[in-house]
Design a protein that fits this description.
about 450 residues; five-stranded antiparallel sheet; alpha+beta; 15 strands; rod-shaped
């Protein structure tokens, strides 16, 4: 007897009509019945038809109606209980008003679990004799079919797992390539290329929308749409497909989004969420926080409206990486804007100083800005020239004096002050250097040259 179980296992394991057809199990069953000149049908243990009735033409219509007739439900339930208890083929009579009819039923197992019943039916005495002679072969054939079905199912499961592994490896590879390209685009300031890469992200994630919102400082509680990608392209209709410009849900979810993000799919989507939050449109969503310099700035949203899905570990990890890149990029943009503002204010301050002043690149010494007083003294074409001919790089000039107790060696730090004779300006100057970042973040030295009190500049 086979080792089998029927305790609700059929809810997680099942035979289907498609499985029987796709693997030609239906042809084997029909062929066996045709050789025996008998009628046949396959039902699952709940009485659902898996393989439509088949057999000789004269009684086929009546046999089809018998299978569908509810009055035989109790008889079938008795048959399934008997097969479940014994695990063996059974032979018997059915109260169908025909004294010569007989039937045989064999259990069909999938991995030891009784899931379906194969029935042979004899309508007359001649067929009943055929059924009696074929009975033992019928039992052995049913057992062989169970073995075949189990092996096919296991093989399919292995193929599905292999396909899933291949799919996972492909996702990992493509996500790494995209992430590398995005980081290169961001570091190079290529905003156009950055947008094109977002389209690759949306397609790889296989979502409907990828949306980036930022806090709207002019409307408390609302977000402003910064950018988005849509499967169908950008349009007013596409923008109506996502409604995340305000926090129309409870404080707990709002805080969850700001701290760790929100990941909703078919595993944890509730009816309340579908109606109250997603308004019946969304099947799955990921909402990730965007931070700038540690402050909540906005959110990146991946939206799936078409089909139910479960976010994979790789998809969640990739989405978090994208959000992190956006956070760094926004932070960098804010710093650049801040540096530009600082440079503009500083230029205005230096212009009004009654002393010489200029700004030079901390690496190559090129002059980035010079106030009008210095330009008048040196010539208006001074910007762009190398400043080392005016005053050398103090770090290089005094590098060999580090640790030496000398009045001529300045302290090499962010703000450095010292005196020196400047030949091109014709005198001794009190030199102050301030190390800051300029406009696009480049390191510069702001140099202020104040004539020494004892010095008379020519």
């Amino acid at each position: 007897m086979q080792d089998f179980n029927t305790n609700d296992t059929h809810e997680t394991m099942a035979l289907t009509t498609e499985f029987l057809k796709n693997n030609q199990v239906d042809s084997l069953i029909r062929s066996f019945a045709a050789i025996c000149e008998l009628y046949t049908v396959v039902l699952d243990i709940n009485g659902k038809v898996l393989l439509q009735p088949d057999g000789p033409v004269p009684f086929l219509g009546e046999f089809y109606e018998m299978v569908r007739n509810p009055k035989y439900r109790d008889t079938y339930d008795d048959v399934t209980r008997s097969l479940a208890e014994s695990g063996q083929t059974m032979f018997g009579e059915v109260d169908d008003g025909n004294r010569e009819s007989r039937f045989a039923a064999a259990p069909i197992f999938l991995d030891g679990v009784y899931l379906a019943t194969w029935i042979l039916y004899a309508e007359n005495q001649f067929q009943s004799q055929k059924l009696f002679k074929a009975y033992e072969h019928f039992g052995r054939t049913a057992a062989s079919l169970s073995h075949l079905i189990t092996n096919i199912s296991r093989s399919n499961q292995i193929s599905e797992k292999e396909e899933e592994v291949q799919k996972q490896l492909k996702f990992e590879h493509e996500s790494r390539v995209i992430m590398s390209d995005i980081l290169e685009a961001v570091s190079g300031g290529d905003k156009k290329g950055y947008g094109e890469l977002y389209e690759r992200v949306g397609k790889l994630m296989d979502v409907d929308y990828m949306v980036y919102y930022a806090i709207d400082d002019n409307r408390p509680g609302y977000m402003k749409l910064v950018d988005y990608w849509s499967r169908t392209g950008k349009s007013a209709q596409a923008e109506n497909g996502f409604t995340w410009d305000r926090d129309h849900y409870n404080i707990e979810l709002q805080n969850k989004i700001k701290k760790e993000g929100l990941f909703i799919d078919s595993n944890n989507m509730t009816n309340q969420m579908r109606v109250e939050i997603f308004e019946g449109k969304v099947k799955a969503v990921m909402v990730l926080p965007i931070y700038t310099s540690g402050v909540y700035h906005g959110r990146l949203i991946f939206i799936e409206n078409r089909v139910e899905r479960v976010w994979t570990k790789d998809e969640i990890g990739f989405a978090k990486e994208i959000a992190s890149v956006i956070s760094r990029d926004v932070t960098n943009d804010n710093r650049v804007r801040s540096n530009v503002k600082v440079a503009r204010i500083l230029s205005d301050v230096l212009e009004h100083l009654p002393v010489f002043a200029f700004v030079r690149d901390a690496n190559d010494g090129s002059i980035l800005y010079a106030n009008s007083l210095l330009r008048e003294k040196m010539g208006n074409d001074i910007v762009g020239n190398n400043s080392f001919s005016i005053i050398p790089d103090v770090k290089q000039e005094f590098a060999g004096l580090a640790g030496i107790d000398t009045a001529y060696a300045p302290k090499l730090n962010r703000n450095t002050r010292y005196n020196r004779y400047i030949d091109r300006l014709g005198g001794i100057f009190d030199v102050t250097e301030h190390q800051i970042k300029w406009k696009n973040g480049q390191k510069v030295s702001v140099i202020i040259l104040k004539p020494d009190a004892s010095n008379e500049v020519i």
